[in-house]
Amino acid sequence: MHVIGTVGLPGSGKGEAATVAREDGIPVVTMGDVVRQETADRGLDPAKDHGTVAQALREENGPAAIAERSLPMIEDRLETHETVLVDGIRSDTEIDVFEERFGDAFTLVSIEAPFETRAERIDERGRDANEADGGEGLAARDERERGFGMDDAMDRADVVVENTDSLEAFHERIRAIVRNGTDGRKPAEADADS
């Protein structure tokens, strides 16, 4: 059993990592889908109200609410697959939920890219409403997600992937992680042994 969680600011490449996992036959549980479903259940627009509902879920049910709602989906997929990728962890509280449930079988991957690169990617994918269309701008999204504890979560990563090279290079790096896993050491520990 291996559960790989991804963490990263909007536009960093978490969705691309999920695509690589799916292409390799690894099921993906997207934490954002939990929020999108709740947004739709509340009769709101997922393109515009995603952030508001994510915040509301955490306020109403505690900071681990979305991770806890994801656990049954992860466990269901682990019944038929050796590895599951969890897309979109936002806080160290959520990491605690997964580490408590899966122990050493949980690996956290931080996917990172500069603000300008992420902004271009978000514009290109056209999935989210921008500020002009009543949505949330990238700087505001970053601030909200950092408010959830994103920076602390990224600091706890077992593996850091800088997504600033070609898409092909990024896919190769993610493919190696989902196929081979990691030794579970923090990057600084691995570097010290090199």
Automatic annotation (TrEMBL):
Domain of life: Archaea
Protein name: Dephospho-CoA kinase
Organism: Natrinema versiforme
